[in-house]
Amino acid sequence: MTTATVTPRRPATESAGFGRLLFAEWTKFVTVRGWVIAMIVSALLTVGIGIWAGAGTHGQPCGEILPNGQTVGGACASPPLGPAGEMVTDSFYFVRQSLPGDGTVTARLTALDGSATPGIAGGTSALQSWAKAGIIIKASLRQGSAYAAMMVTGGHGVRMQYDYTHDTAGLPGGVSAAAPRWLRLVRSGDTLTGYDSADGTHWTLVGTARLPGLTTAVQAGIFVTSPDWVTNENASPTLASGVFDHVTVSGSGPGSQWTGQDFGLGAAYNPLSGGYRQTDGFFTVQGSGDIAPAVRNAAGGSSTADAGITGVFAGLIVALVVGTMFITAEYRRGLIRTTLAAAPRRSQVLAAKAIVIAAVTFAAGLAGSAAAVLLGERMLRGSGRVIFPVGGLTEARVIAGSAALLAIAAVFALALGVIMRHGAGPVTATIALLVVPFFFTGPMAVLQGTAADWLLRVTPAAAFAVQQVLPAYPQVSNTYTAQYGYYPLPPWAGLAVLCAWAAAALGLAGFLLCRRDA
Amino acid sequence: MEETIEVAGLRKRFGRTLALDGMSFTVRPGQVTGFVGPNGAGKSTTMRVILGLDAPDRGQVLVGGQRYQSLRRPLTLIGSLIDASALQPGRTGRNHLLWLARSQGLPGSRADAVLAQVGLETAARRKAGGYSLGMRQRLGIAAALLGDPPILMLDEPFNGMDPEGIIWMRGFLAVLAAQGRAVLVSSHLMSELQDVAGRLVIVGRGKVIADASTAELLAAASGDRVTVRTTAPEAAITALARAGASAAADGPDVLTVSGLPAGRVITVLSESSVPVSEVSAHRATLEEAYLELTRDAAEYRAAAGEAR
What we know:
The structure holds two protein chains of two kinds. Chain A is about 35% helix and about 25% strand. Chain A is α+β, with helices and mostly antiparallel strands. The two termini of chain A are about 35 Å apart. Chain B folds into two domains: about 5-220, P-loop containing nucleotide triphosphate hydrolases (Rossmann fold); about 225-280, Alpha-Beta Plaits (2-Layer Sandwich). Helices cover about 35% and strands about 25% of the residues of chain B. Chain B is built from ten helices and 13 strands. In chain B, a hairpin with a 2-residue loop joins strand 8 and strand 9 (about 205-215). At the A-B interface, helix 1, helix 3 and helix 4 of A face helix 2 and helix 5 of B.
């Protein structure tokens, strides 16, 4: 017979109580091999699906880059980058002359209309709301160089824009012979000031732009451009034409000549070409393209550097199952009684479980998304695809944010597991609330528009906003949908929506756990 | 600190069923207290209330003079086994003990120590899902001993054990009590507790029917009955009846006599020339004592079953 020995009682360490529970829950997790393997599988799925999806569906084989971000087969071309390093579209019809120093450009615009688009199947001749006609001062004839412009737009009145991402509103309304728009840009060193006027007499300051490094001769003149007509499935080039008069450039050299140029547009790959006609002081200019930050849409042959992050949803499903089982397995076996008899402070047990499951899923998420982004980026670059540049901080936010998404979602699943006490319900509920909305609005894109936007605002799937890398620009018409990586909420706000769901579920779980008989 | 379990006036209702109806008793150190009653008498519910798992509608429990909820490292005061199959199948027996040890701030060496104590070292690193019920019981006992607690509470520890295991368990319980621990052991079979329990708390319909030492219970159940072995039972019955005693056949040649002490029985029978091979004071078994005490509870349940 075995004999027991009564060992001396150990002194209780009161302060370390919660630490002991954390250690115990951690031990519980790592001693079930299936759960540890599941976490590794979660990371591998994130990487695997990410690379497969990133390499397979985003982007087309490398080619020349169109002004709208599209690529066309051929040799690889570097996309134009703006002064801040972002990918830009920089193509328009430019009627220009050189401006060696300080000076003023003035023009009156009397008409802006859409034009037929010969050779574009299913194209439109309607005036695009962000079609632009106006005056511009540009640092050089290199695509992506600094500029400032005063313009009339198809649907957003007069604007002053500079360096692609800056946009200030001027006079509202459209333009016509009865309601012309006067535009003026004054260059003084590297500072450009924009004015507008309805009568050419009374001028209003619209904005001031400082373009660092603008010390030498610049190009000044008038321009017209018209952006892609973008639908969910397609994007096709458009043409616009503007009519100018009273065009003057003061400060230009003697004997300056107007030169017309399809800037940034090569006839080889664009069926649309602009042009201009000068008669009796009237300039009629026709142009296609845009001067704006590049965005991703149906035409987008371009990938973002983080395309591999798409696979997070797959790793997430595994994390949801494990998060649920971390508690429902205890209910199923009656082990919850052993747990609660060992730790009568039930809310602390729940907190310890939440921290442990959050930590392990965060680690798996971090490993998975970091590997997916870095490997995906390498593969994309290796295949010579055009890649939207993504800043290091943004990339870090996408990786850490995706890991946080997994962690908070697993806590949400754990809380539902406590509430329902059976595994099937929480797994179904979390997948329905998180993965399904993401999948239907994002990769599959069967849901679009207002319904999709609301789903991505109120459901926990809002958290996928942490994966958005490209900003949505109000001054660029585009289908800003999850399919192309645009979310209705800012990244951290989206994550906060998931946090709110998890916190509410955790609160209810704690209440029920403390109140119910075990 | 007096290391006892004090159960005072517990009442608890599950829906329309009154599970506990004023359950009160005290478990004292140094002996095994048997907690006996038919299935459904409220034993397991009482144990869950003792561990703070179920909240009573009324009444309270003090473990070592404290409320369970206020215990910081409960397993160092009271070890319990309430469900031997409450195990994660994929976790090894040792790892099950390991997380429990860590929850109490105990070193991992305690897990190995208690595994040796219950004789489960060889299976310690196998997955608990493959354990037999007897092995699970041993692992459950090991878990109860983990914090070396002065109080132990085991719910039906004999379940699923082979005869060898039952003998081992009885000896083990006796040793634990001899070490000065308070040991509460529930069972629905009185025979399992025979020779082990120093005290018995017999329950039925959610309350205590009898709470006494085993010796007292046996004496009360035995009464003043006498067993007579004779080859002429009919003559013996007639003679004893004439002397004012009642006798009943308890076998082909065995009578149980009540109403006369053993000495008088011998005198009456020898005067009537009835041949007698043995006369002895009747010794009741715990089983008999138990059945008598719990008859009401059992009848109640049978009636309720028919009414339904």
